[in-house]
Structures are given as C-alpha cells and as structure tokens.
Specification:
single chain; 194 residues; mainly beta; Metallo-beta-lactamase, Chain A; 6-stranded mixed beta sheet; 12 strands; 36% strand
Length: 194
Amino acid sequence: MAQLYYQGHGSYRIISDDGFVTYIDPYAGKGYDVPADLIIVTHEHGDHNKISLVTLKEGGKVLRHGDLFDGKSYQTYHFGDITVTGTPAENRNHPRNKCVGFIMNVDGKSLYGGGDTSYFPEMKDFKGLDYALLPSDGIYNMNIKEASRCADLIDTKVAIPIHMAPGKLFDARIAKKFTTKKALIVEPDTTLTL
C-alpha cells in the first residue's frame, strides 16, 4: 500500500508499494532524501515549485500545470500502474490557466490534490475518491470553512486540510476548525498509509 508523507504547508510525498516516488509541490519541511520518479508542480508560485530540493531519478519526470492543462483540456499521464489526471484549480490569486489540481490513482487508491484553489463547480463531479487534500489558509486559497464545505461536496472518504498558514508548516488552530465528518488531521513529518 502506498505511503503519503506530509512535509508541511502544501508539500507531500507519495511512495507506491513498488517504490515509485512522487513529490507534490516541493517547498516545505523535510523528507526530500528519497530520489523522485515524478514531481508534480501545481503552479509556479515559490511555495510550490522548489524542485531543486529533490533529486530526480534518471528518466524521472516533472509535471507542471502546463503539462496537466493545455489551455483547453486536462491531460492524463500513465506511469505503469499510476495515473495522474489534471483538474481545475482557481481563485482570485490563481487563474485557472496557470494552476491545476490533480487526481492520482496509486495502489488501488485515488487521491485528489487541490494545489492552490478555492471552490469550483467541477468539484461535484469528483466521484469515488479515497483522499482529498484541500488548501485552507483563507488568504491565497479558500478558508477552512469553505474547505470543509468542499470536502462535503466531493465524493471522498477522507479529507485532509493542508496549506493552512503562509510561512508555517501547519496551524493546529485552523486544523481544529475543519468540521467535515470526513476530516483527518495530519501533522507535518507524519506518514499515512493510503
């Protein structure tokens, strides 16, 4: 079963059962010591794109927002048994044409990574997910109340608030306000078996 290691802020790493390593929005925390097969950069803001922290394996790939959204449609990539499909992401700070989320299928589990987003109508179409990671700082993204509402709207078993406060890995005060019944609070430097 895949392992998700939460580094803090909007950064996390997923290692599949067969050792395929994916980093999402590298920037915060520790745990960049495992070489990557894949790096996903949801957008080019400095707190999401510090790929210099990661050693990319030979043949490894970096998927940026322009790879996952070509301006007309969202793209799907296959890496063996792992698939990554771009999704919308948008708010007043992140135009849809410069930011994406994604849905990853790994080891029989599906995970939605919101990148930097607020609510958008297509969320209601996300079906059969196991995990949703939702930004919730209320400054550059939706606030924790809206993140809770989105978690209830998305068809997911578990919802995890991330990206809670600029300049911080985690904010326990904000996390406590994540009111969805699907809530799972994951602190930085924690590994979760998916």
